[in-house]
Write a structure and sequence with these properties.
This protein has 406 residues and is an all-alpha fold. It has a domain of 98 residues. The protein has twelve helices and no strands. Helix 2 crosses helix 3 and helix 6 packs across helix 7. The longest helix has 24 residues. It is elongated, with a radius of gyration of 23 Å.
Length: 406
Amino acid sequence: MSVRNYHRSDTLFVLSGVAVRLARKMGLHRDGSSLGLSPFETEMRRRLWWHIVHVDFRISDSLGAKPSMDLFSSDAKMPLNVADEDLSPDMVDLPPESNGITPIVVCLIRCEIAEFLRKISSPFPNDVRWEILTNPDITLAKKDSMINQLEDLLERKYLRYCDPSNTLHHFASIMVRSAICKIKLFAHNPRRFANRGVKIPQSERDIIFANATKLLEYVNLVRGNQSLDKYMWQIGTSFLWNSLLYVLIEARHRKVGPEVDQLWQLIGVVLSKYPRMFEKTTGAVYAALGKWTLEAWDDYLAATKVEGLPEPPTPEYIIAIRRCRTPSIESPSNQKDLTDCGPVTGKSAGYCNIQARRHDRNTLANLEPFASYDFSNLLSFEMDPDEWVQWENLVVGEGLAQTDIM
């Protein structure tokens, strides 16, 4: 998992498939207790099997593919909530589970989420993946009920025992809360209203806006927090991009108000942690989000004028994006540093510093310029389902679709 940013996703997909088949050949998908194995070997096999499940699930998601169906014809139980020092090769019985947080908590949370997805997809056993939450054949009432049950389970088993002063506990709590937000966004995905000739109900908009905003806040809590740096290899960025898209669409609808004002500050802080947003030569996902950010900001300024409100100062991150996304008429000799649009300081509205990262020229040469993509108006997402397909293809195509939690 720690090398996923340095190898092609399809290569990792093949290797994870090999791991799944080898594991099944070894019988790791069978629980050791039913095979008469020792307590220690039984627990080790469970931990290894569930890690393989996680790896294949996550890499499959990065390609927009289904995980191996071999994963779900298994009777391997979840690992025990016990510390490593409670296990030994010569133990006669498995130790009692802890009521609280142990070093295996991250693995256990992922197991709980995988079990949730398996339960909710029970009518469709060959479609166990995140997208099952968007299936219209499963009623929204059933989805919400099962999500509430999962949230209650995670609260009782893990969150209530989290000590914010402990970095592992803090990371686990962010992991749980962001997972619930992500699951709710899948279940209430706004794309299901595209091309249906009906407006998205305000209640649905509120759910989408609240959970996408929370996800951005959790990104802000993790990124740049030195105490959590050692856990950063565990997480990806996939749902960050969808969350940004959702809140930008909602910003255009909500126009003005305290929540919109706060949103613009939050967007600035989040984007400051992704310097590629502020490069002239960048990937399509960053270019698209930059374009839509400017579009929503201009709409926000127009709305404040209509409401007779004082014009808000333009944040420096907006200025930086506009500078990068405005076609230049300078000669190539005057554009010797296309990847640096200038630093964004913290003087405007208290935003974090943005220090443009200079990427290797050979890497940048492989990225298509943003002008080659057909980026439609933000509001077209509510009318054309193909816009969502194009967006997902962009995210997958740039290798950014790495699941954050599972």
